[in-house]
Design goal:
The structure is a homotrimer.
Chain A: H1 2-38, E1 39-41, H2 49-54, H3 63-85, H4 93-118, E2 128-130, H5 132-152, H6 158-183, H7 191-210, H8 224-246, H9 252-279, H10 286-291, H11 295-299, H12 309-337, H13 346-365, H14 368-371, H15 390-419, H16 443-447, H17 451-466, H18 470-473, H19 477-488
Parallel strand pairs in A: 1-2
Helix pairs in contact in A: 3-4, 3-5, 3-8, 4-5, 4-6, 5-6, 5-7, 6-7, 6-15, 7-13, 7-15, 8-9, 9-12, 12-13, 13-15, 17-19
C-alpha cells in the first residue's frame, strides 16, 4: 500500500513537472500532421513575376506586397508591443516577455489551423491555403489571447497559459466566424472580436482562477527600469496601431482606416495625459501613459474604415482616453473587491474601450451614408442577405457585441474553472509575480530579497514623504537609525 | 483685503496646477470643431480596388502603399527614436519618453490642421484633404518640435512644452511654405526646414528661458542602464533615416535619397567612433555614439535626392560626424558659458549638421547637372518661375537658409520669453532633470536620494580613479571608513 | 641607445593607441575614392514616375518599393536585433551594442564595394550600380560578420574587429560568388553563405585568438536588466526573419519563403521552451529563449523559398530548436575544453542550425518537384549549365556546404592568428567583458566594483540556495554577520 502511494506521488510530481514540455511536444506533432495533410501555399492567380524580373523591369506588386508591411507591423505589435508592455512588473519581466513570446507563437500555429478548417476550408481540394493575409489573421487571433494573458499575468504557470490559449483560439475564431458570416456585423479593427472577446474572456478566467484566493503581493509593483521597458511596448503599439486597424481594409476603406486610427489614438494620448494629471493632483501616473494612451486605437476599431469623419475619430479617441484612465485610477480596486484581479488592467485598455467601439458601431450603423454597411454584406447574411436594411444592421451590430460578450464570459469562466484542477498546480500567492518560480535567474535578481534588499526596503518607507524635500533626505535621522538597527546590533 | 489675497492665491495656485490639463482639453475641443468643418479624407483618383479585390487578383497599389511604409518608419523615428534617445538622463527618463510622446501627438493633430490651412487649402470646397502623405508631413513637423524639445529637456514643465509646440508649429510651417513655394529652395530631407529650424528655435528658447538662471545639477547625468535605453532611440533613428529623407521623393529621386542617406549616415557613424576615440585618448564616449553618429543623416538632407554621387554623400557624412563629435566634446561647455544650456546637444546633432547641409545645398546648386534644381521649380517661384537660372538658385538656397535661421532664432527668443511668465511656474534648478516633480515614481527611484543612496554616492568619488585597478577596490580603506562614519556612529 | 628605445616605445604606444581611429580614417578615404570612381546609382529601366505623379494618379511601384520594406526589416535585424541580442553581458553592454553598430556600418560600406567589383561589375561602363537590392545584399554580408563578432565578443578590441571585418567580407563574398555562380547551389535564406560561414569563421578566429590563453571571468555573466535588453534583439530578429529569408525571393518563391520561415521559426520557439524546461528540471533558461528560439529561421534558410510544404518547415524548425537548446546546455562547455570560447554561442544558434539547413537542402535537392532547382541554374553552372540533373544538384549542394565550411574555418584561423600580433594588444583576461577598457563609463557602472558592490557580492552566495525560501531571507543570520564584518569592524 505505502509503496503504491509513493509511486502514485512520484508519478503525480513527475506529471506536474513535465506536463508542460511533454504537452507542447505532443501538440507540435499533431500540428505537423495536420499541416501536412491540409495546408498548402496560397499562390496568387497567374503570377508571372519570374519572367518579368528577368526582363529587369519593375517586378509586379501582388497581394504579398499589399499585405506584407502591414503584417510585419502587426507582428511587431504582438511580440514587442504586448511583450514589453507587460514587463512593467519588476520581478516578473522574464516571464512577461517570454511567455508572451511562447503563447503568441503557439497561437499563431494553432490559429492558422483552426481558421483553415473553420473559415478558409476548400471542400473540393480538401485543404486550405496559407497566404500573408492568413498570417495577418493569425496575428489578430493571437492579440485576443495575449489580451486575456494580461488579465492573468503573474498568477498562472506556462502549462495553464497553453491550455487557455488552446481553448480560447477555438472560441474566438468560431465567434468571429458567426458574427462576420451570418450576423454580418462590421468590425474593421477587430475591436469586438479581438479586444472585447480577449478582455472579458481573460477577466472571467481570472475570476474563476482566483475564486476564494487572495492576491496580495509586494512583488506586484514596478521599478523605474521596468516601467521604461514597458514604454517600449506602448510606443510600438501606438505607432503600428493604424496597421492593425487597416490591415484587412482595402481601397478607400484603407485610407479611412489609417487616418481614423491615427487621429483617434492621438486624441486618446492627449486625453490620457490630461485626465491623469487631473486625478493625480498635477502629477502623471506612468501606468496610465503605458496603457490608457492606446485606448483610442481600440475604440475606433469597429468603425475605423467607415466614413465617420476625422472629427468623429477624434471624439471617439478622446472618450476612450478618458474612460480608460479613469478605469485605471478607480475601477481596478473595485474589481479586486469582487475578486476579479486584472494584472495589466485589460478591462480598462481593451474591455471598456472595446465596448465603446461596439456602441460607436451601433450608432454609426444608423447612418448608412457613414456606415457603408452594404460593403460588408453577402448572400450568407441573415435577414435579407445583401439587401438588409440599415435598421436591421443596427440590430445585428448589437447582437454581435452581446454574443461576443456572452461567449467570452462563459468561455472564460469554464476555462478558468478547468485550469483550477489540482494537476495544473496553480502558483500560490507567495510565488505570484516572481520569476524565480519558472526561471533560473541572475544573481542580482536574488539580491533584492537579500539582507541588503531588506535593508533598502526598510529605508524606503521613510523616504516616501521625504520625496518632497530631497535636500533633507541625506540627513534623515530615522533612516540612519534603521541602518544601525539592521546592521550594527551587537 | 486679506481674504481677497488668499482667494487670489488659491486661484493662482489652482490655475498653475490645472492650466496644463484644462488647456489641453480646450485645444482638443477646438481641434475637433476645426476637423469637423474643414478636414476630409484624401481618396485617390478613380480607385476601384473593391471590385478588383473581389476578382481575387492582386489589389492595385496606390498612393497609400507608395507612402505608408515610409510613413511608418518615420513614425517610429518620432516616438521610439526621439523618445528613447532622450531617456539618457538617469532621473528624467519617464518625462523624456512620455512628454516626447505627448508633444509629438499634440503636434501631429495641430500640424495637420495648420498645414491644411496654409499649404493644402482648397478654396473651392472650402476644405483640405488628409492622405497618408499628409500624415507623413505632420511627422516631419513634429520632428522640428521634438528637436527643440531636446534643447530644453528637463528644464520645462508640460504646460510650457505644449505652448512651445503650439507656437513653433505655426512658424515652422509658414517658414517652410514660403521657402518652398516662393524661394523654391530644395530640401529633400527637410534639413533646413526641420533640423536647422528646430535646433535654433530650441536653443533660442532655452537661452531666454534660462536667462540669468544657472543650470547646475548632479541629476544631469546618465546611468549605465539609461545610456543603453538611449541607444534604442539612436539605432531606430539610424535605421529609418533613409525613409525620412526619401519620404516625399519619387522616381529616380527616391533611389538617390535612399542610397545617399544610407551611405552618408554610415560614414558619420564611422567618423564619430574615430573622432571620439581620438579626443577621448583611446576611449569612446557613449554620448557621441548616441548622437553624433546620426549627423550624416541630417547633413545629407538638403541634397539627399540630388545627383551628388555616393562619394559626395560619404564626404558630407564624414564631415558631419567630425563636426558633431567635436561639438559634443568642446562646444557644449562654451555654449553654457553664454547661458545657452543645450540638454541633448541638439546644436551638435541638428544645428551644425543642418547648416552644413544648407551649405552643401548651395554648393550643389551651382552644378545644375547635379542639383537638377528645375525639378523643384514652379510658376510661383520668384525670379523667373520655372526658368530660373542656376546662379539665381544658389542665391535662393542661401536665402532659405538665412530666412529659416532668422525666423527660428527670433521665434525661439520670443516664445522662450513668453514662457518665462510666472504663471507657467518654470521648475527651478533643484527640480531640474527630476521625474519626481511631474510623476508618481516607483520606490526604487526615491531610494537613490535615501541614506543608502547617499552612502553609495559617498563611496563613488573614491572609486573613480580606482576604476583602473579593480582588484584593489574591495579593500579600499577610505570607502570602508565612509561606511562606518555614515552608518555606525554612536 | 636608451634614448632610441624610449622613442621606439613612445611610437609603439602611440601606434597602439591611435591605430584604430587613424586606420578607420584611412579606410574611409580609400572608400570615398573608390565610390567616386566606380559606383553609380542603379535607376530602373524607363521610369517615368515624375510625369505620372504630376497627373495625381497613383505613382508606379517599382523595384524600390518591391525591396525597400524588406530591406528595412533586415536593416533593423542587423542593428537592433544583433546589437541588443549581445547586450546580455552585464558589464559589456556599451561595447556590445556600439561595436556591433560600428562593425555593421563599416561592413556595409565595404561590402557594397567588394560585391560591386566581384558580383555586379559592368565591364563596359567600368562601374557598378547601387540599388536598394544592393543595400539588402550588403546587410546580408554584415550578418555574417556580426555572427563572427558574437563568437569573439568581449575578448577583442575595436581595431581587431575592423581588421576581422575587412578580411571576412572579402572571403564571404568570394565564397558566395563561387557557390552561386559556378556550383549553383541554392540558399534562399543565405544559411550556408551567411550563417554557416559567419559562425565557423568566428569560432576559428576565436580559437586561434585564445590559443593558450584562458577565458575565466566573473564578468562574463548577465544581469536581470541586461537579459531583458537582450530580449529586444531576440524579438526583432524573430519578427523580421521572414523578411531576411524572403528578401531576394520573388513571385511564388516569395510567398513560400515568408510562410515557411514564419512557421519554421514559430516551431523552434516552441521546442526551445520545451527542451529548456526538460533539461532545466522544469525551469526555463533565459539564454535559451534569447537565442535558440531563432534557430528555426536559420535552419529553414537554404530551402525557405522551396516547395517543402509548411509541415516540412515545421519539422525543420522543431529540430533546429532542439539541437540549438541542447547545444547551449551542453556543448558550450565542451567547446571551451578544446579552447574554443564562444561568447554568444553562435555555434548553437548559427553554426549547427546552418549545417542542418545545408543538409535539408541536400535532401530536398533529391526531390526536384520540391527543390525546383532549375530556377537557380544558369549558363555559368558547372556540369551541364541549365540542364543539370537532380542527382548532380545533390552533389553540388554538398560541395557548397563543404567549400563554405572549409573557407570559413581556414579563413578564420588565419585571421585570428594575424590578430594575435602584439601590435593589436589583445585585451587580457582581466579586461575581458568589461566596458571600462574602451569607454568612459557612468558612475553607477563603477559602483559594482566598489565596497558596496563587494558587500553585495559577499551577500549573494548565501542567497543562491535561499532563493527557494524567500520568506526566510530577510532573517538569514549569515548575511547580517557579513554586513557587520564588512562594515562595522573597529
Amino acid at each position: 500500500m505505502f509503496d503504491f502511494d509513493t509511486i502514485k506521488d512520484t508519478i503525480k510530481r513527475g506529471f506536474k513537472q513535465y506536463m508542460f514540455p511533454v504537452g507542447l511536444i505532443l501538440f507540435q506533432c499533431v500540428f505537423i500532421v495536420l499541416y501536412a495533410v491540409h495546408a498548402k501555399y496560397g499562390y496568387e492567380v497567374d503570377d508571372n513575376s519570374t519572367e518579368i524580373i528577368s526582363r529587369n523591369t519593375p517586378p509586379p506588386k501582388g497581394a504579398v506586397e499589399y499585405y506584407y508591411s502591414f503584417f510585419q507591423d502587426v507582428h511587431v505589435m504582438m511580440f514587442i508591443g504586448f511583450g514589453f508592455l507587460m514587463t512593467f512588473l519588476r520581478r516578473y519581466s522574464f516571464s512577461s516577455v517570454s511567455f508572451n513570446f511562447l503563447v503568441a507563437t503557439f497561437v499563431l500555429e494553432w490559429a492558422i489551423l483552426v481558421r483553415g478548417y473553420v473559415v478558409d476550408w476548400d471542400s473540393e481540394t480538401k485543404s486550405f491555403s496559407v497566404t500573408v493575409k492568413n498570417l495577418l489573421h493569425a496575428d489578430f487571433v493571437s492579440a485576443a489571447i495575449l489580451i486575456s494573458f494580461g488579465a492573468v499575468l503573474g498568477k498562472t504557470n506556462p502549462a495553464q497559459l497553453v491550455i487557455l490559449a488552446l481553448a480560447e483560439v477555438v472560441m474566438q475564431i468560431w465567434n468571429e466566424h458567426i458574427c462576420v458570416t451570418y450576423l454580418c456585423a462590421y468590425d474593421g479593427g477587430e475591436s469586438i472580436y479581438v479586444h472585447v472577446f480577449g478582455a472579458y474572456f481573460g477577466l472571467a478566467a481570472s475570476y474563476s482562477l482566483q475564486h476564494k484566493r487572495e492576491v496580495e503581493s509586494p512583488k506586484e509593483g514596478s521599478s523605474y527600469a521596468s516601467d521604461i521597458f514597458s514604454m517600449i511596448g506602448t510606443l510600438f503599439l501606438f505607432c503600428f496601431w493604424p496597421s492593425f486597424n487597416a490591415g484587412t481594409a482595402f481601397g478607400d476603406g484603407r485610407v479611412r482606416a489609417i487616418t481614423n486610427t491615427y487621429i483617434s489614438i492621438c486624441a486618446s494620448v492627449i486625453l490620457t495625459f490630461t485626465v491623469s494629471a487631473l486625478v493625480g493632483k498635477g502629477k502623471e501616473e506612468i501606468t496610465h501613459i503605458q496603457n490608457a494612451t492606446l485606448a483610442g486605437g481600440v475604440a475606433v476599431g469597429v468603425v475605423s474604415d467607415k466614413n465617420i469623419g476625422l472629427f468623429g475619430a477624434m471624439i471617439i479617441g478622446s472618450l476612450a482616453g478618458i474612460i480608460s484612465t479613469l478605469g485605471y485610477k478607480y475601477l481596478l480596486e473595485l474589481l479586486k473587491k469582487i475578486h476579479i484581479h486584472d494584472t495589466c488592467g485589460v478591462h480598462n485598455l481593451h474591455g471598456m474601450p472595446g465596448v465603446l467601439s461596439g456602441l460607436a458601431g451601433i450608432v454609426v450603423a444608423s447612418m448608412p451614408w457613414r456606415s457603408l454597411y452594404t460593403e460588408n454584406l453577402g448572400a450568407t447574411c441573415l435577414s435579407g442577405g445583401e439587401h438588409r436594411s440599415a435598421g436591421t444592421q443596427v440590430g445585428y451590430q448589437c447582437a454581435a457585441l452581446l454574443l461576443t460578450l456572452g461567449i467570452a464570459i462563459v468561455g472564460g469562466l469554464l476555462t478558468g474553472t478547468f485550469l483550477r484542477l489540482s494537476i495544473f498546480s496553480t502558483p500560490d500567492n507567495d510565488s505570484y509575480f516572481d520569476d524565480s518560480l519558472n526561471w533560473h535567474v541572475p544573481k542580482d535578481f536574488v539580491a533584492e530579497n537579500s539582507a541588503l534588499g531588506s535593508l533598502i526596503k526598510s529605508i524606503l518607507p521613510n523616504q516616501i514623504q521625504l520625496e518632497e524635500m530631497p535636500n533633507q533626505i541625506a540627513l534623515n535621522p530615522n533612516t540612519l537609525e534603521v541602518i544601525q538597527e539592521t546592521t550594527c546590533r551587537q
